[in-house]
Design a protein that fits this description.
The complex is a heterodimer of chains A (about 500) and B (about 325). Chain A is mostly helical and about 500 residues long. Chain A has one domain. Chain A is built from 23 helices and two strands. The longest helix of chain A is centred in the first third of the chain and has 34 residues. Chain B has about 325 residues and is an alpha/beta fold. Chain B has two domains: about 160 residues, D-Maltodextrin-Binding Protein, domain 2 (3-Layer(aba) Sandwich), CATH 3.40.190.150; about 100 residues, Periplasmic binding protein-like II (D-Maltodextrin-Binding Protein, domain 2), CATH 3.40.190.10. Chain B has eleven helices and eleven strands. In chain B, helix 2 links the parallel strand 1 and strand 2. Chain B is globular. Classes of the chains: A mainly alpha (about 500), B alpha/beta (about 325). At the A-B interface, helix 20 of A face strand 7 and helix 7 of B.
Chain lengths: ~500, ~325
């Protein structure tokens, strides 16, 4: 069995002292930022990216990935105890989790969230280990035309699956694409939109954009809110689930895991969408839908399983195709590039210790997270009492130092502040930042591959449809666009996101 | 004090005045900065770190690598120019020093901008084709003949727009009358993926970029353009061995600002010579796949001037000179 041999290599890497330590650091930091509202995994990974210069690439990825899925655990704690999403994908958990806490069942809500996440995380990781090698071996044969079609599909899917108005999502993707054209055009060598500024000749670094629209913008938004976090209870009586709880949760966890694993692979999907979808499905299938919103345990079990499964499976497109599924995996891709590893189908062959080490670390990380989040819950609850005014100056300093260190350039700091202000204005107008970042990252790749496909086929446009893989992907893209335009689908899409 | 003693004392002090102070070479007295035009982990940076690790010993001071990747290296070169000529700021430059002016706007440096302390490395390119592609059975001559008989049909990947590899490709075309379909791609690793997927037939890549694929038999090396074959690739011929008079490997040279006093630059030349002759350096280079090559200050200057001439002529022919 190849898979077993590979996994044993992976566990060999993941079980070294250093990597265990970085896995733990990632899990702790992830839990921490998950618990603290207003600091998500995107901003945190962006901030920590420059620090990973000094680490081994495998250790760096293990730590950053730990932050990403760790945040899924931490986020649920805040959702249940304070009725605030500690992290975006825990929005749905607030609905029933908080109600459970009000009824004195906070312990049970926390337990099912953690155990559901553990199960989902393990399954999601298994899926990654099983699917990735096959997908990578197919992807080696992908040329520029196929990559173009894949990325177009990704961008369209991101729009279709985004919550909120599709027109606004399209606007943000396009805005991202436009920002991505800044810099030197590879084919002609001409500079585009650089206005003679040296610092722009290589384009804008995506970390600058990410820290601006996720880091700075979040700080601004939080400063505007009043800083009162009411804990429903600081006493958690029992973490034990009753037999009835188990009976009702098991199918919900299973369905949430399945849904999350599939949706996570889709570009633009990931944790947020899958938690919404899982909650909606549970409510529809339930024999007692009237209990949802009043503290139904399925309403915690399903979305929490779904978001963690999706967090793991969203590594599939990044590790096999070199295409990020969402903003966080885009940043992890950046971390690989910092270490001179080109994300894509070659990673598995060229850096097997990194690939399998990362996968093995995810299992270890998930187990660590359950230990961190259940027995030590009272420690984390105390953190919720730290007022934001003490927190944000530290974040601000950290973000600024981080962005400076990428290019040793103060220009990047100004640029980041600019993006922060822009992100704030956009969020006031209810534009989402995630499609912008996805457009910005995929845009230059999309253009490069489009032009290269034409160049190598001597300008023949039919190359996109006559190559079978590229043709099929484009057909799928067209189908998704058609769905978006059909009114029936639009209604369904709206109800899916209505729970908030 | 007795008169005799006084006389002796005077004699001693006079002697002290007229004998030159210890004929010791200049050495830096505090931390040295080495400006590198790439991000941590890039080729330049890897070279600089391997060098600095050994050079610290000979300089007697710690050497800090200052990464300045902004503006594709332009910012780094400008900082090297503006640095105080006190011997505490070194620069590391490469072939693009003499070609940036053809490629970018507002470039104010060329071959005469710096004082050269010596060459520190040479990285050759390998001309590779896919073993699954239509040119797998051709040797260099057959491949170039094909590109001559059917001009602009063979997709040829180069990293970046008029980077070093573009010049090598152009020089090969000029030399042999062949003509490829030029496909500029961002970064060598993307070029590699293009060749493996079959989009691109051939390309020029650094040895470290293609080692794994050459070893596994996915790629075939037709020739290299260095002064000696890179280690670990067996007995591959150079372009010149095969009758194609093209060199142009990437070199890296250490610099000081032009107005640095001769005493200081001579001191650094000595430190660099000692470093490059230290067996520990070759070990350090080997560990990170940097090609060893050393020339002293004067020879390095000749190297830069020659490259400036050859690449200038190629730029003229390619229509890059505005």
């Amino acid at each position: 069995m190849d898979l077993l041999a590979n996994l044993s290599t992976g566990f060999g890497v993941a079980f070294t002292f250093d990597n265990m330590l970085y896995c733990l650091v990632g899990a702790v930091v992830g839990t921490l930022i998950g618990i603290l509202p207003g600091l998500g995994p995107v901003a945190t990974v962006a901030m920590l990216l420059p620090i990973t210069y000094a680490l081994e690439p495998t250790s760096a990825l293990i730590m950053l990935a730990g932050i990403y899925y760790g945040a899924q655990y931490g986020g649920s704690t805040t959702a249940i105890l304070v009725n605030l999403p500690g992290e975006a994908s825990s929005v749905v958990t607030c609905l029933d989790g908080y109600q459970m806490a009000k009824k004195g069942r906070a312990g049970q809500a926390l337990t099912i969230a953690a155990l559901g996440s553990l199960f989902a995380g393990c399954v999601g990781t298994l899926l990654l280990a099983a699917v990735a090698p096959t997908l990578a071996s197919i992807a080696v044969g992908f040329g520029a035309a196929e990559y173009f079609a894949l990325m177009l599909l990704g961008l369209v899917a991101a729009v279709v699956l985004a919550s909120g108005s599709p027109v606004k999502a399209i606007a943000m993707v396009v805005f991202g694409l436009v920002l991505g054209t800044i810099g030197t055009d590879i084919n002609s060598g001409e500079e585009r939109y650089t206005f003679g500024i040296f610092e722009l000749s290589e384009g804008i670094d995506f970390v600058v954009v990410a820290m601006g629209v996720f880091g700075i913008t979040e700080i601004l938004r939080n400063l505007q809110k009043s800083d009162d976090r009411e804990l429903v209870t600081s006493r958690i009586d029992s973490l034990m689930l009753s037999r009835e709880d188990v009976r009702r949760s098991v199918p919900a966890v299973l369905r949430g895991t399945g849904l999350g694993s599939i949706l996570g692979i889709l570009p633009g999907g990931g944790a947020l969408l899958s938690s919404f979808a899982a909650y909606t499905i549970e409510k529809r299938l339930s024999k007692h839908p009237q209990e949802f919103g009043q503290g139904a345990i399925e309403g915690v079990a399903a979305p929490e399983s779904a978001n963690n499964a999706a967090a793991q499976s969203s590594f599939v497109p990044m590790l096999t195709l070199g295409i990020p599924a969402n903003a966080t995996t885009a940043l992890l891709m950046g971390a690989m590039m910092i270490h001179n590893i080109q994300p894509g189908p070659q990673v598995m062959n060229n850096n097997p210790e990194l690939f399998w080490g990362l996968i093995a670390s995810m299992w270890i990380g998930n187990v660590l997270l359950v230990i961190l989040n259940l027995p030590m819950i009272s420690v984390w609850v105390k953190l919720l009492k730290v007022p934001y005014r003490l927190l944000y100056p530290a974040i601000l300093v950290f973000v600024t130092v981080g962005v400076f260190s990428i290019q040793n350039s103060t220009f990047a700091i100004y640029l980041m502040i600019g993006f922060g202000l822009l992100g704030y204005v956009l969020s006031k107008l209810e534009f989402e930042a995630a499609p912008l970042l996805l457009g910005f990252i995929l845009g230059p790749m999309l253009e490069d591959n489009f032009r290269r496909a034409l160049l190598v086929s001597a300008g023949d446009f039919t190359t996109f449809v006559t190559r079978p893989v590229s043709g099929a992907l484009l057909a799928l893209t067209a189908f998704l666009l058609f769905l978006l335009l059909s009114s029936k689908f639009r209604q369904k899409r709206e109800t899916a996101f209505q729970e908030e | 004090m007795k008169p005799m003693h006084l006389a002796a004392a005077i004699a001693v002090s006079v002697a002290a005045l007229v004998t030159p102070a210890h004929a010791e070479d200049w050495k830096p007295t505090s931390t040295v900065n080495l400006i590198v035009p790439s991000t941590p982990g890039g080729g330049h940076d890897t070279n600089a770190r391997a060098l600095a690790q050994v050079m610290e010993k000979h300089a007697g001071q710690s050497i800090v690598i200052v990464n300045q990747p902004a503006g594709g290296g332009v910012v780094a070169y400008n900082e090297m120019m503006k640095a105080k000529p006190d011997g505490l700021t070194l620069g590391q430059v490469s072939t693009v020093l003499v070609t940036d002016k053809y490629r970018l706007e507002n470039v104010r440096y060329d071959a005469d901008t710096f004082k050269y302390l010596g060459q520190i490395s040479e990285d050759p390119n390998l001309l590779v084709v896919s073993t699954k592609g239509p040119y797998a059975n051709l040797d260099l001559k057959g491949f170039l003949d094909k590109a001559k008989a059917e001009p602009e049909t063979i997709n040829f990947g180069v990293s970046g727009n008029w980077g070093n590899q573009d010049y090598v490709r152009f020089a090969i075309e000029q030399e042999t009358g062949s003509k490829f379909r030029r496909v500029p791609i961002k970064g060598g690793r993307q070029v590699l993926l293009g060749i493996l997927s079959g989009d691109i037939a051939a390309g020029l890549l650094y040895p470290s970029e293609v080692k794994a694929q050459v070893d596994s038999g996915e790629l075939k090396v037709l020739a290299h353009n260095g002064s000696s074959a890179p280690e670990g690739f067996g007995n591959i011929p150079s372009l010149k061995d095969s009758g194609v008079n093209v060199g142009l490997p990437v070199w890296r040279v250490l610099t000081l600002p032009k107005e640095t006093p001769a005493e200081i630059s001579a001191g650094w030349e000595k430190i660099l010579a000692d470093t490059m002759n230290d067996p520990a350096l070759k070990e350090a280079y080997k560990a990170v796949s940097i090609g060893y090559a050393y020339k002293n200050g004067a020879d390095a200057n000749a190297l830069v001037q020659e490259a400036s001439k050859v690449l200038g002529e190629l730029s003229q022919k390619a229509g890059l000179v505005k």
